Every structure is written in C-alpha cells, then in structure tokens.
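seq as requested:
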Amino acid sequence: MTDLPNLISANYCGRDLYRTCDIAERVLNAAIVQADISGSFEEYLEIFDKFYADDIEVSSDTGKESIRGRERVRSILLDFLVPLHVVAEIGGVSISIRETAITGDAVGETHSTWELDLVGASGNTCTLSWRTFRKWEGLRVVCEHHYDHQQSGGPLTFEDMRFSAAKSSAAKSDEALRTPFGGKAD
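struct tokens:
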C-alpha cells in the first residue's frame, strides 16, 4: 500500500491544499481498489486507520443518522467487510471495485463514483453503485457521505456460491439414507 505521509511532505501541504487533498484522495482510492478482499479484510481496516480521522463522521442518504467516531465506523465497516471476504474466499464469488473521480472545485472536498461488482460462481452478477463525498482536514478524512445508491442485477443467493453446488450434490446422494431425525439409516 502506498504510504501517504511519505508521498506528500508536510511542507508541500501548506502551499497547495487543493492539490494535496486531490493527491490524498487518489492515493486512498487506489489503495481501496488495489486491496484484495478475497485474501483478507484486514488490509481495508489498515487503509481506514491510515486515512480516516479519529472523529470521522459518516452518513448516507439511506441511513437515519450520522455515525461518529473511528471505533463506531470501524465496527460497521467490519460488519460489511467480513461477509464480503467470506463469500469471496469460500463461496467463489468474484468481487471487484472501481472508482471514478468527479471533478470538484472546493478546497478540501472530493467526490467520486464507486461500483462494486459481485459475480457468483453461477455466473449471476450484482452491481452496486454509489457516490461518495469526502471532506479532508490535512491528510485525514473527517467527513464522508454516501449517496445515490443503485443496484443492477438481483442479489446473489446461496445457489450462486461455489460451496452450494458441492453441498447440494452431497445432500442429494445422501438423502435416501437419512432418517427423519437427520441421522443415517443403517
């Protein structure tokens, strides 16, 4: 992962805040895109710890209230990442994420569009997309808002996972040998 503090010197930050935030945004987004959820979710937590302020505020147009504080946001991020990691590593779902910057003109504020593609072992696809607004203070995100959520394709089901095919065929071949109580017949 790129080390942002080594990329941007503290002396440079004071001279061109707009450019500094733009570079920090690109480094953050590149780190997110390059991380591999099928290998580990911990890399995303490291990215979060490196780029987000202790007093981060996160909101969404689908949520009721803002979430404040690194530990609360980290907990919600973990609840999102762990299932993605499991379906990628064990379930055979291919997961990819893309980001496109949206040009802005406010110092310390950035916008981007995100697409998360989930392709099941069955070939079924679900794409989630949203936009993100971030407010930066120095080299840390202090506010992040997610909006314009969209989904194309239906949600993936258990049948779209690789382990479901193996379980189904094993269950079918064993089905005749099972008693009504779940044990094997003699």
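The two ends are 57 Å apart (CA to CA).
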